[in-house]
Design goal:
The protein is α+β, with helices and mostly antiparallel strands. The protein contains 3 helices and 20 strands. It has 3 domains: 159 residues, Efflux pump adaptor protein, beta barrel domain (Elongation Factor Tu (Ef-tu), domain 3, Beta Barrel), CATH 2.40.30.170; 67 residues, OB fold (Dihydrolipoamide Acetyltransferase, E2P), CATH 2.40.50; 74 residues, Helix Hairpins (Orthogonal Bundle). 27% of the residues lie in helices and 39% in strands. It is rod-shaped and about 140 Å long.
C-alpha cells in the first residue's frame, strides 16, 4: 500500500512538471548588462499634404454657382464655380450684329460681282470696274472672317469663366464667396491632393543624426511606424525640416499635430525583459538573487523589454517573480 502510494505521487509530480507553463526564460535567471539603444526624442509632427493645388479664376468677373465648401472632396476637372463677366455678353451681342451686317454686305458684293461679270462679257463695262467689284467682295469677306475669329475669342473667354479643379483631393480653403468680384488669376479654392505626409521640425543639433530611411514611432503605443522620406537642406528658424511617410496615414485634418518619437543618437542603458518586473503598491520591483526584492525606476519600453534607469547594477542576476 505504501509502495503504491509513493508510485502514484511520483507520477503526479512528473506530470505536473510536464504541464507547468513555460515563462520563456531560462530558470537560471537574467543577467543584467548594458546595451546600446537609440535615444528616442518625443516631438510633434504636422500632417501635411504632399501636393497643394489651387483652383484659380482665369478671367475677372463676379463669382456665381460656388458649389464647394471646406472639407469637400473634389475630382479632377470638376467645375466648382463660374466667373461671369457681363461685358463679354455685351461684346458677343455687338459682334453678332456686326457679323449679320457683314453677311449682308458679302451677299450684296457677290451679287454686284456677278452682274458686272455679265456686263463685262457684253462689253458694256471696263475690266477696271469688274476688278473693283471683285476687290470689294474680297474685303468684306475677310472682314467677316476677322469678326468671326474675334467672336470665337470672346466665346473662349466666356468658357474660361468655369473654375476647374486641377486635381483630385479635398478642399482645405475657399477664398471666395458667391457674388464676390475677383481678378484674373485670383485663387478661388485651395485643394489638398491625395497623399498625406508628416512634417517634422527638429532643433539644428539633430541635423547630423537624422537621415533618410530612419524609422519613427507614431504615438506612445508605438504600433505605427513611419520612415523619413526627405530631409530638406535648408534650415528654417534654426530647425531642420524632414518629411515622413506612413502607410495608411488616414484622412487627417491638414495641419493636425501628432506626437512621434524619432531616434536622435545612441546611448548605453540597461534593458530588462518585462517578465522580470512586477508592480506592488504603485512601485516597480525586480527580484535580485541574493538581495531579494529591489525597487527600480523604469523608462521607455521597446520590443526588447523595459529600460531600467536606476536600482540595478551590471552583473545582477534577476529571478522571475513568484506568482500566486
Amino acid at each position: 500500500m505504501n509502495t503504491s502510494y509513493k508510485w502514484h505521487l511520483a507520477l503526479v509530480l512528473a506530470l505536473g512538471g510536464l504541464w507547468a507553463p513555460s515563462n520563456g526564460h531560462a530558470q537560471s535567471g537574467f543577467t543584467v548588462e548594458k546595451v546600446m539603444v537609440e535615444d528616442m526624442k518625443a516631438v510633434f509632427a504636422t500632417v501635411e499634404t504632399a501636393d497643394v493645388l489651387t483652383a484659380r479664376a482665369r478671367i475677372g468677373g463676379t463669382v456665381s454657382g460656388l458649389s464647394v465648401d471646406e472639407g469637400a472632396k473634389v475630382k479632377k476637372g470638376q467645375v466648382i464655380a463660374t466667373v461671369v463677366d457681363a461685358k463679354l455678353r455685351l461684346s458677343m451681342d455687338a459682334l453678332d450684329a456686326r457679323i449679320d451686317s457683314l453677311k449682308s454686305q458679302v451677299k450684296l458684293a457677290d451679287t454686284a460681282l456677278g452682274r458686272d461679270r455679265k456686263l463685262k462679257k457684253s462689253g458694256i463695262i471696263a475690266q477696271k470696274r469688274l476688278d473693283e467689284a471683285q476687290t470689294n467682295l474680297d474685303v468684306v469677306t475677310r472682314e467677316l472672317k476677322a469678326l468671326k475669329a474675334e467672336r470665337a475669342v470672346i466665346s473662349e473667354q466666356q468658357s474660361e469663366g468655369a473654375v476647374v479643379v486641377p486635381g483630385a483631393g479635398r478642399v482645405i480653403k475657399v477664398h471666395a464667396t458667391s457674388g464676390a468680384v475677383i481678378m484674373p488669376g485670383e485663387a478661388v479654392a485651395t485643394i489638398a491632393a491625395k497623399g498625406f505626409i508628416l512634417r517634422l521640425a527638429l532643433p539644428e543639433r539633430h541635423a547630423r543624426t537624422i537621415r533618410v530611411g530612419a524609422a519613427i514611432t507614431i504615438g506612445a503605443d508605438g504600433k505605427r511606424i513611419g520612415y523619413v522620406q526627405q530631409v530638406y537642406p535648408e534650415m528654417q528658424q534654426g530647425r531642420v525640416v524632414a518629411d515622413v511617410t506612413v502607410d495608411d496615414l488616414g484622412d487627417f485634418f491638414v495641419g493636425e499635430r501628432l506626437s512621434v518619437y524619432i531616434a536622435t543618437g545612441t546611448r548605453e542603458t540597461i534593458i530588462v525583459p518585462s517578465d522580470y518586473l512586477f508592480i506592488r503598491y504603485g512601485l516597480v520591483f525586480a527580484m535580485v538573487k541574493g538581495e531579494g526584492e529591489v525597487v527600480v525606476q523604469t523608462g521607455l519600453k521597446n520590443i526588447k523589454g523595459t529600460e531600467v534607469l536606476s536600482g540595478l547594477r551590471v552583473g545582477d542576476v534577476l529571478a522571475l517573480p513568484e506568482t500566486n
